[in-house]
Amino acid sequence: MNGAISQEMKMIPDTLDLVERGRLAINGMLGSLGPDCDFEPYFLTYFDIHPAFMIHFSSMPSGALPNYVEAMPLLRLMSGSNQNRDIEEGMLASIVTNISDDGLIYDRATPKRPWNVGFGCRCVRKLNSTHPLPLTPPRGDFVNRQCPT
User: Fold this and answer.
1) Percent above pLDDT 90 for the chain
2) How many helices and strands (H and E) does the chain possess?
3) What are the backbone angles phi and psi of residue 68, rounded to the nearest 5°?
4) pTM score over 0.70
């Protein structure tokens, strides 16, 4: 019995490489964005069909994408990676274009993204505290009034 446990213990790594895990998380998150659809994340993935494919789904700009924005500074700090900075910048620009005058991020239906339904659910101030967004007047002034720190 002790021999079996000893063999299992040899297979478990002594440490978890958090730098590598952070780099992999950046790769996975930014790799799921669709530059052809204003950097909106793909949401549904189908592996049981050949070839496998991913599709977009409603409420990603106001639902999932802000979570990416919140996680990216931590992952960059954790890993030291500069991988896909251009994609990250596109993602941030997409967030900014979806901010309305009321300070919420909306899922705007556009010809490139007809599946979006148009509701907003995220206050920009929370995002701006973790990853400064280029908010200029009057939009930035309105967000500062509507979403105090």
Assistant:
1) 25
2) 6, 6
3) -65, -45
4) no
Tell me which residue of 55, 34, 58, 43 sits closest to 109, measured CA to CA. Answer: 58
Give a yes or no: residue 133 inside a domain.
yes
Range of the domain at 122: 17-146
Q: Do residues 96 and 133 lie in contact, with contact meaning Cβ atoms separated by under 8 Å?
A: yes
| Residue 111 belongs to a domain | yes
- C-alpha distances out from residue 105 to 27, 54, 61, 90, 112, Å: 25, 24, 7, 16, 18
| Residue 68 three-state SS | helix
- CB neighbours of 73 closer than 8 A, spacing ≥ 6? 130, 131
The CA–CA distances, whole Å, from 96 to 62, 69, 91, 124 equal 11, 11, 9, 9
Instruction: Evaluate if residue 148 carries a pLDDT over 60.
Output: no
Decide if 104 contacts 127 (C-beta within 8 A). no
8 A C-beta contact, residue 95 and residue 65: yes
Number of structural domains, the chain? 1
